[in-house]
Write a structure and sequence with these properties.
164 residues; 5 helices; five-stranded mixed sheet; alpha+beta; 5 strands; 18% strand; Ribosomal Protein S5, domain 2
Length: 164
């Protein structure tokens, strides 16, 4: 028996691809959130900051590497360093921060994030620059670990001298 094309079985759960118009609508919805972008660096850590501002945003919406700030930076010291620029200008209830941080240790990462947040706040409002500069949040700490040199035990520590 020959099966006609109209009678051929088709899979019941075939996926229907969204049209191009639907894709454009989804992208435009995602782009509606206005943000300010900045980069902060400390030692070998690099933090990319996305600062979202608006009336309906809360501090608890802030994330670091897709984790809440409280989970990624568990100590209160790290959290106070992270939110220091926002608290200094009084925008803790009106802003949300999304951070992508790589490299370094936790201390370097949190200080890189602090510099990036301060830079993003200046992009948001140039009048905040004087306040943030007064607290030292806009100063890049350029100190890095010095490399080890050949023939030495550490970067500068020479081997102990032996007379014989």
């Amino acid at each position: 028996m020959a099966v006609k094309k109209s009678q051929e079985k088709t899979p019941a759960n075939t996926e229907v691809k969204p049209s191009k118009e639907e894709n454009k609508e989804k992208k435009s919805v995602a782009k509606k959130d206005k943000y300010f972008y900045a980069v902060g660096r400390r030692k070998t850590a690099v933090a990319q900051i996305f600062l979202y501002t608006g009336a309906g945003l809360k501090k608890d919406g802030s994330v670091v590497n897709n984790m809440s700030v409280e989970n990624y930076f568990p100590t209160s010291t790290e959290q106070s360093i992270f939110f220091a620029p926002v608290k200094a200008v009084g925008l803790e209830d009106k802003s949300r921060v999304s951070v992508l941080v790589r490299g370094g240790g936790k201390k370097g990462q949190v200080e890189a994030a602090r510099l990036g947040i301060a830079r993003a706040l200046v992009k948001f409002d140039g009048n905040l620059k004087k306040t943030l500069k007064g607290f030292g949040f806009l100063t890049r700490d350029a100190r890095k670990v010095e490399r080890k040199k050949p023939g030495l035990k550490k970067a500068r520590r020479a081997p102990q001298w032996k007379k014989r």
